[in-house]
What we know:
Blueprint (H helix, E strand, L loop, with lengths): L7 E2 L2 H7 L9 E9 L12 H12 L7 E4 L9 E4 L9 E3 L8 H13 L9 E6 L6 E9 L5 H10 L23 H24 L1 H19 L17 E6 L3 H10 L4 H19 L9 E8 L13 E8 L6 H15 L15 H10 L8 E6 L7 E2 L2 E9 L8 E8 L2 E9 L6 H29 L6
Helix pairs in contact: 7-8, 7-11, 8-9, 8-11
Amino acid sequence: MTETRLLQRVTASDLFLLLWEDYGWSTDIGGLAILDGTSLLDVDGSVRLDAVRRHLEPRVHSVPRFRQLLRRPRLGLGWPLWIDAPYFDLAEHIHVHALPAPGDQDQLLQICQQLARRPFDPDRPLWELWLLPGLPEQRVGAFLKLHHVLADGPAAMAAFGALLDRTADAPVGSAPPWSPTPAPSTGELLRDNLRGRRHQLRLGWSGLVHPSRTLRLARRALPAWREVLTEKPAPRTSLNHPVGAERRLAIVRGRLDAIKHVAHDHHATVNDVVLTAVAGGLRRLLASRGEDVHGLVQRAMVTISHHEARPGEAQGNTPGWMMVPLPVGEPDSLCRLTSIAAETSARRDKPRPEAGSGIFRFVAGQRLWYRLFPRQRSVNLVVSNVPGPPMRLYLAGAPLLEVFPVLPPMGNLPLVVAALSYAGQLNFTAAADQDNCPDVEVFARGIRDALDDLAQPILESETGDRAGASPASA
């Protein structure tokens, strides 16, 4: 008797993000790393691309999604699923795009914007790594781009981590032998779809048979849904307009130790400090547009992942959310931090369902949400804070000096902020819709100033300690 093959269907949460394509929104996420490219470059400044590919090939094979295609069966055969690519050529995924030398940060971000705009080829695995030489001091950018259905933030960090080493001289092994599993037949797809439908019916019947358990689960999720659907609508500002295809990027560098110190001194979390800085950026941006920020409160959707990021293991999307009011009208950064910390403390322990739960387990519910999304007033912007590795990592022997996460704008949210900790840094990337937020650098300066304001007492204390310890003061 032939053994039944289990097919790898996308989850409801994956499908929720896959539907972005149907509404014309960008579906890529990724990260920009700045490398010390000394070991990657020839004497003429060109990347030793073949050597990089040889180094990364065995690491790529540790992430199954990097060798798989996403297929959408015809009606009646079930949800999209992952299948092995008939062949896999690493040269189709690792490329070089040189900056006009001498390149600078603005040129680097412009190139990343252009690369992010390029659609994925659906007949290839949905990821690319671009090496971007031409920066001063032999530095090289590395832009990893993934389709959002492949990973959320922590899963993307895990996928990137699978390509990296903890030492510069990590041994280069050989890629294990691999042969693709044949794509499922129409009959297999139909039988798998019927099994899935039966499973859903059993779950539905179980909910009817055990109503108390169903009500208990619904009550647990209700506070999170209430934050989105029944709290006071987000105030109208110049930000909430439907996004287009073009985007702009701005980056902000931060010190993780200083941010942790601020959080500790004010009984807050690192994420509270991140949100406080974002509120400072919004205040600066909206005020520069001539808008009245007095008493203004904006609502941030803070993403929460339900899985841990382990290299090569995390797959797909398990996103939740927490809605946090940001007191943009408060001019004092410390007062903003106190207010935000109180809000998150009250909300943090509430259960957070995944995006593909409740009515969003059904395609009709997801499509209804997306039809309303470009006109929603529940949220003003999205903020994501992903913890990264605390130690220095290496790409094909080249040290990663800095890493910046990249998320796309969507719906009527033309400003999305992502933060990532790495090797003592906490760096921010603001991705903005070109038409609605061409002044995203103003927002970035507001974040920088807010971080400086919060850290100023710490810097003054460190300066005083050094002066007190000097011989001249004895």
